[in-house]
Protein backbone atom coordinates (compact mmCIF):
# COMPACT_ATOMS: atom_id res chain seq x y z
CA UNK A 1 0.00 0.00 0.00
CA UNK A 2 1.44 3.39 -0.98
CA UNK A 3 -1.36 5.74 0.06
CA UNK A 4 -3.13 6.47 3.32
CA UNK A 5 -6.61 6.73 1.86
CA UNK A 6 -8.93 4.85 4.20
CA UNK A 7 -12.17 5.01 2.27
CA UNK A 8 -12.10 5.44 -1.51
CA UNK A 9 -15.11 6.95 -3.30
CA UNK A 10 -15.75 5.91 -6.91
CA UNK A 11 -18.34 7.56 -9.14
CA UNK A 12 -19.65 6.66 -12.60
CA UNK A 13 -22.47 8.55 -14.30
CA UNK A 14 -24.19 5.68 -16.09
CA UNK A 15 -25.00 2.02 -15.45
CA UNK A 16 -22.33 0.84 -17.92
CA UNK A 17 -19.66 2.81 -16.07
CA UNK A 18 -20.21 1.11 -12.70
CA UNK A 19 -21.37 -2.33 -13.85
CA UNK A 20 -17.98 -3.98 -13.26
CA UNK A 21 -17.79 -2.50 -9.76
CA UNK A 22 -21.14 -4.16 -9.04
CA UNK A 23 -19.63 -7.43 -10.23
CA UNK A 24 -16.28 -7.25 -8.43
CA UNK A 25 -16.70 -5.25 -5.21
CA UNK A 26 -17.38 -7.45 -2.18
CA UNK A 27 -20.45 -5.63 -0.90
CA UNK A 28 -20.93 -4.92 2.81
CA UNK A 29 -23.82 -2.43 2.78
CA UNK A 30 -25.53 0.46 1.02
CA UNK A 31 -27.43 3.65 1.70
CA UNK A 32 -29.58 5.91 -0.46
CA UNK A 33 -29.63 9.72 -0.31
CA UNK A 34 -31.10 12.22 -2.78
CA UNK A 35 -32.17 9.28 -4.92
CA UNK A 36 -28.58 8.03 -5.32
CA UNK A 37 -27.59 4.61 -3.94
CA UNK A 38 -24.10 4.37 -2.43
CA UNK A 39 -22.75 0.83 -2.32
CA UNK A 40 -20.14 0.10 0.37
CA UNK A 41 -17.68 -2.76 0.22
CA UNK A 42 -14.15 -4.09 -0.14
CA UNK A 43 -12.20 -4.04 -3.41
CA UNK A 44 -8.77 -5.67 -3.42
CA UNK A 45 -8.88 -5.38 0.37
CA UNK A 46 -9.54 -1.61 0.33
CA UNK A 47 -12.65 0.04 1.72
CA UNK A 48 -14.65 1.62 -1.13
CA UNK A 49 -18.00 3.31 -1.70
CA UNK A 50 -19.27 3.49 -5.27
CA UNK A 51 -22.34 4.98 -6.90
CA UNK A 52 -24.04 6.01 -10.12
CA UNK A 53 -24.40 9.79 -10.07
CA UNK A 54 -26.59 10.16 -13.12
CA UNK A 55 -25.60 12.35 -16.08
CA UNK A 56 -24.62 16.00 -15.86
CA UNK A 57 -22.98 18.47 -13.53
CA UNK A 58 -25.77 18.88 -10.98
CA UNK A 59 -26.08 15.12 -10.46
CA UNK A 60 -22.30 14.83 -10.17
CA UNK A 61 -22.05 17.70 -7.69
CA UNK A 62 -24.78 16.39 -5.37
CA UNK A 63 -23.40 12.87 -5.60
CA UNK A 64 -19.84 13.97 -4.81
CA UNK A 65 -20.90 16.03 -1.79
CA UNK A 66 -22.94 13.16 -0.35
CA UNK A 67 -20.07 10.74 -0.96
CA UNK A 68 -17.73 13.08 0.92
CA UNK A 69 -20.29 13.55 3.72
CA UNK A 70 -20.31 9.73 3.95
CA UNK A 71 -16.62 9.81 4.88
CA UNK A 72 -14.57 9.07 1.75
CA UNK A 73 -11.13 10.67 1.72
CA UNK A 74 -10.55 10.64 -2.04
CA UNK A 75 -12.81 10.48 -5.11
CA UNK A 76 -12.15 8.65 -8.39
CA UNK A 77 -14.38 9.00 -11.45
CA UNK A 78 -14.60 6.16 -13.96
CA UNK A 79 -16.30 6.47 -17.31
CA UNK A 80 -16.35 7.43 -20.96
CA UNK A 81 -15.84 10.70 -22.85
CA UNK A 82 -15.61 12.20 -26.30
CA UNK A 83 -12.04 12.67 -27.53
CA UNK A 84 -11.13 16.33 -28.06
CA UNK A 85 -7.40 15.89 -28.61
CA UNK A 86 -7.26 14.78 -32.28
CA UNK A 87 -4.46 12.30 -31.48
CA UNK A 88 -6.81 10.24 -29.30
CA UNK A 89 -8.74 7.28 -30.65
CA UNK A 90 -11.74 5.37 -29.38
CA UNK A 91 -10.70 3.26 -26.37
CA UNK A 92 -7.77 5.52 -25.42
CA UNK A 93 -7.50 6.90 -21.90
CA UNK A 94 -7.48 10.45 -20.53
CA UNK A 95 -6.32 10.97 -16.95
CA UNK A 96 -7.33 14.41 -15.68
CA UNK A 97 -4.50 16.79 -14.99
CA UNK A 98 -7.28 19.33 -14.36
CA UNK A 99 -10.99 19.89 -14.99
CA UNK A 100 -12.82 22.94 -16.35
CA UNK A 101 -16.49 23.68 -17.12
CA UNK A 102 -16.50 24.47 -20.84
CA UNK A 103 -20.13 25.68 -20.68
CA UNK A 104 -19.43 28.33 -18.03
CA UNK A 105 -19.72 31.38 -20.29
CA UNK A 106 -19.77 34.89 -18.88
CA UNK A 107 -17.82 36.31 -21.83
CA UNK A 108 -20.32 39.18 -22.41
CA UNK A 109 -19.13 40.61 -19.06
CA UNK A 110 -15.49 40.28 -20.07
CA UNK A 111 -14.64 37.00 -18.30
CA UNK A 112 -12.66 34.34 -20.17
CA UNK A 113 -14.59 31.31 -21.40
CA UNK A 114 -14.80 28.73 -18.63
CA UNK A 115 -14.02 31.30 -15.93
CA UNK A 116 -16.42 31.44 -12.98
CA UNK A 117 -16.85 35.12 -12.04
CA UNK A 118 -15.67 36.37 -8.68
CA UNK A 119 -13.79 33.27 -7.55
CA UNK A 120 -10.11 32.51 -7.73
CA UNK A 121 -10.16 29.04 -9.27
CA UNK A 122 -12.17 27.82 -12.27
CA UNK A 123 -9.85 24.99 -13.33
CA UNK A 124 -9.24 22.39 -10.63
CA UNK A 125 -6.01 20.40 -10.48
CA UNK A 126 -6.31 16.67 -9.90
CA UNK A 127 -4.28 15.10 -7.09
CA UNK A 128 -0.73 14.44 -8.31
CA UNK A 129 -0.38 11.06 -6.56
CA UNK A 130 -3.71 9.80 -7.96
CA UNK A 131 -2.75 11.01 -11.44
CA UNK A 132 0.56 9.16 -11.17
CA UNK A 133 -1.20 5.95 -10.10
CA UNK A 134 -3.68 6.27 -12.97
CA UNK A 135 -1.01 6.90 -15.61
CA UNK A 136 1.06 3.96 -14.35
CA UNK A 137 -2.06 1.75 -14.48
CA UNK A 138 -2.89 2.98 -17.94
CA UNK A 139 0.62 2.31 -19.24
CA UNK A 140 0.44 -1.25 -17.87
CA UNK A 141 -2.85 -1.99 -19.63
CA UNK A 142 -2.80 0.29 -22.68
CA UNK A 143 0.82 1.25 -23.38
CA UNK A 144 1.13 4.45 -25.41
CA UNK A 145 -2.63 4.98 -25.38
CA UNK A 146 -3.09 7.40 -22.50
CA UNK A 147 -2.62 11.11 -21.96
CA UNK A 148 -2.72 13.32 -18.95
CA UNK A 149 -4.86 16.29 -19.93
CA UNK A 150 -7.56 18.82 -19.27
CA UNK A 151 -11.03 17.31 -18.89
CA UNK A 152 -13.74 19.65 -20.14
CA UNK A 153 -17.21 19.26 -18.65
CA UNK A 154 -20.54 20.71 -19.69
CA UNK A 155 -24.21 19.83 -19.80
CA UNK A 156 -23.95 19.07 -23.51
CA UNK A 157 -23.20 15.97 -25.57
CA UNK A 158 -20.59 17.24 -28.04
CA UNK A 159 -21.23 15.94 -31.55
CA UNK A 160 -19.88 18.53 -33.97
CA UNK A 161 -16.51 19.00 -35.67
CA UNK A 162 -16.55 22.78 -35.19
CA UNK A 163 -17.38 22.54 -31.49
CA UNK A 164 -14.79 19.88 -30.79
CA UNK A 165 -12.14 21.90 -32.67
CA UNK A 166 -12.91 24.95 -30.57
CA UNK A 167 -12.72 22.91 -27.33
CA UNK A 168 -9.26 21.82 -28.42
CA UNK A 169 -7.95 25.07 -29.86
CA UNK A 170 -9.56 27.60 -27.52
CA UNK A 171 -9.66 25.65 -24.24
CA UNK A 172 -6.87 23.09 -24.70
CA UNK A 173 -9.07 20.14 -23.72
CA UNK A 174 -8.12 16.49 -24.00
CA UNK A 175 -11.69 15.17 -23.79
CA UNK A 176 -15.28 16.33 -23.25
CA UNK A 177 -17.74 14.82 -20.82
CA UNK A 178 -20.53 15.95 -18.52
CA UNK A 179 -19.49 15.47 -14.87
CA UNK A 180 -15.76 15.77 -14.12
CA UNK A 181 -15.45 19.49 -13.39
CA UNK A 182 -18.48 19.40 -11.06
CA UNK A 183 -16.90 16.58 -9.08
CA UNK A 184 -13.57 18.45 -9.13
CA UNK A 185 -15.11 21.67 -7.84
CA UNK A 186 -16.93 19.92 -4.99
CA UNK A 187 -13.79 17.99 -4.06
CA UNK A 188 -11.77 21.23 -4.02
CA UNK A 189 -14.41 22.94 -1.86
CA UNK A 190 -14.00 20.08 0.64
CA UNK A 191 -10.20 19.72 0.22
CA UNK A 192 -10.59 16.13 -0.95
CA UNK A 193 -8.18 14.74 -3.59
CA UNK A 194 -9.68 13.51 -6.87
CA UNK A 195 -8.86 12.15 -10.29
CA UNK A 196 -11.07 11.61 -13.34
CA UNK A 197 -10.38 8.60 -15.58
CA UNK A 198 -12.08 8.62 -18.97
CA UNK A 199 -11.86 6.16 -21.85
CA UNK A 200 -12.88 7.52 -25.25
CA UNK A 201 -16.23 6.23 -26.54
CA UNK A 202 -16.31 8.64 -29.51
CA UNK A 203 -14.55 11.62 -31.06
CA UNK A 204 -17.19 14.24 -30.20
CA UNK A 205 -17.75 14.84 -33.94
CA UNK A 206 -20.62 14.22 -36.34
CA UNK A 207 -20.39 10.45 -35.71
CA UNK A 208 -20.30 10.77 -31.93
CA UNK A 209 -23.86 9.57 -31.29
CA UNK A 210 -23.27 6.42 -33.37
CA UNK A 211 -19.85 5.70 -31.85
CA UNK A 212 -21.11 6.39 -28.33
CA UNK A 213 -23.84 3.77 -28.76
CA UNK A 214 -21.36 1.27 -30.16
CA UNK A 215 -18.35 1.79 -27.90
CA UNK A 216 -19.63 2.87 -24.47
CA UNK A 217 -19.47 -0.63 -22.97
CA UNK A 218 -15.98 -1.32 -24.36
CA UNK A 219 -14.67 2.08 -23.22
CA UNK A 220 -16.24 1.60 -19.77
CA UNK A 221 -14.35 -1.69 -19.46
CA UNK A 222 -11.09 0.11 -20.28
CA UNK A 223 -11.73 2.77 -17.67
CA UNK A 224 -12.63 0.15 -15.08
CA UNK A 225 -9.31 -1.64 -15.71
CA UNK A 226 -7.48 1.53 -14.67
CA UNK A 227 -9.53 1.88 -11.47
CA UNK A 228 -9.02 -1.81 -10.66
CA UNK A 229 -5.27 -1.55 -11.16
CA UNK A 230 -4.99 1.75 -9.26
CA UNK A 231 -6.73 0.33 -6.20
CA UNK A 232 -4.35 -2.61 -6.17
CA UNK A 233 -1.46 -0.15 -6.07
CA UNK A 234 -2.92 2.42 -3.64
N1 LIG B 1 -19.47 11.36 -23.05
C1 LIG B 1 -19.09 10.50 -24.02
N2 LIG B 1 -19.01 11.12 -25.21
C2 LIG B 1 -19.35 12.40 -24.99
C3 LIG B 1 -19.46 13.53 -25.83
N3 LIG B 1 -19.22 13.44 -27.15
N4 LIG B 1 -19.84 14.71 -25.29
C4 LIG B 1 -20.10 14.78 -23.96
N5 LIG B 1 -20.03 13.75 -23.13
C5 LIG B 1 -19.64 12.56 -23.63
TrEMBL record:
Domain Nucleoside phosphorylase span(s) in chain numbering: 7-231
This protein's GO CC annotations: cytosol
Any single biological process term in GO: L-methionine salvage from S-adenosylmethionine
Enzyme class label: hydrolase
Example of a GO MF term: methylthioadenosine nucleosidase activity
Entry keyword set: Amino-acid biosynthesis, Hydrolase, Methionine biosynthesis
UniProt-listed Enzyme Commission number(s): 3.2.2.9
Pfam annotation, one family: PNP_UDP_1
Record has Amino-acid biosynthesis as a keyword: yes
Pathway note: Amino-acid biosynthesis; L-methionine biosynthesis via salvage pathway; S-methyl-5-thio-alpha-D-ribose 1-phosphate from S-methyl-5'-thioadenosine (hydrolase route): step 1/2
Protein name as catalogued: adenosylhomocysteine nucleosidase
Gene source species: Paenibacillus methanolicus
Amino acid sequence: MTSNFKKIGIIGAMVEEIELLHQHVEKTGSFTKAGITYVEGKFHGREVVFCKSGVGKVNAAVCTQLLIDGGVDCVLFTGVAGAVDPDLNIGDIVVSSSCLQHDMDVTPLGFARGHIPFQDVSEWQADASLVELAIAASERHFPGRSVQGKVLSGDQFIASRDTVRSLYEDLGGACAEMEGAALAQVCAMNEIPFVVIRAMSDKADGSAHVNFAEFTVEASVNSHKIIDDMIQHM
